[in-house]
Amino acid sequence: MKTLKSALVVSALFTMPVAQADVLGFGASIGYWDSDLSGKAAKGGDRVNVENDLDLSNNNEVNLSAYLEHPVPLLPNVRLSYLRIDQSGRGELGTGFDGIPVGATVDSSLDWRQTDLTLYYEVLDNWINLDLGLTARDLDAELKVSDRAGLYNSETKIDAVVPMAYAAGRFDLPLTGVSVGINGNVVSYGGDSVYDYDIYGQYNYAGVQLRAGYREMAVDYEDGDERLDIDVGGPFASVGFSF
């Protein structure tokens, strides 16, 4: 895996002024994502369109997240999140792919799992909130394609740990429980790139958080002669709690 030179980012995070939580805090949420998938997969010199050739397009995903914030100086706060995309489709190849001839009717499946570990600091913590940190994303994605007769089978697999910059901002409307915000992870290096962001509105009442917005994720990653260039986007809603 290519190496990301992030020493300057790490140095900046450890030298910037940070706001510490006054007490120990914990939160968790579960979200429903109505996502639309597009993009391409490549193996060797062959490419296939996952939407038009494989008919992998719309899907509904469930994602989980949890965070822990604490008042200990210098130690970062911790956030964990998990997402799984599980799709299947039947299409017709407009071009040959990994030995499967052009025009073949194929069954395909995409199993995409990612787990994020984020270490971050609260830079601002009042009615304007700003968190900055680093994310390690464990990405495991596998695309399987086979013709209906069972004569040809193809597997394209990406397995990597991707370091990313993390930022989250939120603006709270005082005394209303209403807020708007944006979360994002991004990295680009060596021809590979990943970005993942969501924009949302939120209502908080007695520690219960109702959130709705739009999320988009794009991954362009090459592992040997295998490559996934995938975009996933759509509206989402989540419910969570914090204390």
Give a structural overview.
- This protein is 4% helix and 71% strand.
- The chain contains 1 helix and 11 strands.
- The protein has a single domain (7-242), classed as Lipocalin (Beta Barrel), CATH 2.40.128.
- With 243 residues, it is mostly beta strands.
- It is elongated.
- Strands 1-3-4-5-6-7-8-9-10-11 form a 10-stranded antiparallel barrel.
Task: Describe the secondary-structure layout.
Elements: H1 7-15, E1 25-43, E2 46-49, E3 58-69, E4 77-92, E5 105-125, E6 128-147, E7 153-173, E8 178-189, E9 192-205, E10 208-223, E11 226-242
Binned strand content: over 45%
CATH architecture: Beta Barrel
What fraction, in percent, of the residue positions are helical? Answer: under 10%
Question: Pairing-aware structural class of the strands and helices?
Answer: mainly beta
Please give the count of helices.
Answer: 1
Provide the low-confidence segments as ranges.
1-15
Question: In the residues, how many domains can be counted?
Answer: 1
What strand line-up does the widest sheet have? 1-3-4-5-6-7-8-9-10-11
String of helices and strands = HEEEEEEEEEEE
CATH topology: Lipocalin
The radius of gyration computed from the alpha-carbon positions, rounded to a whole number of angstroms, is: 20 Å
> What is the CATH class designation?
Mainly Beta
Overall shape: it is elongated
Straight-line N-to-C gap:
39 Å
Q: Describe the main β-sheet briefly.
A: 10 strands, antiparallel, barrel
CATH homologous group name: OMPT-like
Strand segment tally: 11
Mean pLDDT: 88
